[in-house]
Amino acid sequence: MPEKVKTDLGFADLQCRKSDVGRISRIAKAAYSFNRRFFGKEIKKPFHIIICYSRKEFDDIWGAETDAWLTGFATKTGTIVSFRDDLIRKYNPRKEATLAGTLRHEINHIFYFQIYGSYEPAWLLEGLTLQPPFEPFTLMENDKKRLKGPLPHLIYSTNGKTFFKQAPFLYSMAFLATRH
Amino acid sequence: MKRHGRAKILRMLALYSKTGTKKGFETAFKREFGYPVKELEGRVFKRP
Ligand SMILES: [Zn+2]
Ligand SMILES: [Zn+2]
């Protein structure tokens, strides 16, 4: 397996294969600038971006087995983990998912955490990023079906243990609440 | 919330971050948007 290299982007370091450095650096820089404009400020603490080339690598950083649809996340310690584009397309059930969208989304979380000191409320954290042009999001058929059940609540907190139980409601409700 | 615009949402978050608590969020939300966050659920989830 090709080795990864670490590249300093100024605002973050990027760990990916050498052959991906140029392309992914450009995508990450654009995603960072996009968020700087969104929040109207810089953030001070450099963060990390790790590109994964297998589910095992991804799960090792998450610390447990992840559900197949998850293709990117940000930790509280300031690390963004994402698959490369080809694997995002392979795993993410949303046709419109891209690495650019994933990085805009996860970098938004990093700004949010550094500016407001929290990943809460989870529904607003996620909702901010589900509006175009962050990460295009639409309700899929199974989201709509789920929302026909007992009226769900806006989710304030998530954690690694409950995340995959909450996620199906978290995103669709976050999308609806912030779009309202 | 979208109708109220990004500036208002960010202002509300800045207010919330002074406490970082759920209660603090509810207060900040009410102050910026003029209604309790609980009401948002009812307003939004007219089934899609
Ligand atoms: Zn997210
Ligand atoms: Zn509103």
Report on this model:
The complex is a heterodimer of chains A (180) and B (48). Chain A has helices at residues 21-39, 55-62, 85-91, 99-116, 122-129, 141-146, 163-179; strands spanning 4-8, 12-17, 47-52, 72-74, 79-83. Chain A is α/β, with parallel strands linked by helices. Chain A has a five-stranded mixed beta sheet with strand order 1-2-3-5-4. In chain A, helix 1 (21-39) packs across helix 4 (99-116), helix 4 (99-116) crosses helix 5 and helix 5 (122-129) crosses helix 7. The longest helix of chain A has 19 residues, at 21-39. Chain A starts with a strand and ends with a helix. The model of chain A has no long low-confidence stretch (mean pLDDT 93). Chain B has 48 residues and is mainly α. Chain B has one domain (2-45). Chain B is built from three helices and no strands. Chain B has helices at residues 6-17, 22-33, 37-44. The longest helix of chain B has 12 residues, at 6-17. Chain B is globular and about 30 Å long. The two termini of chain B are 17 Å apart. The mean pLDDT of chain B is 88. Chains A and B meet through helix 4, helix 5 and helix 7 of A and helix 1 and helix 3 of B. One zinc ion binds at residues 1, 3-4, 33 of chain B.
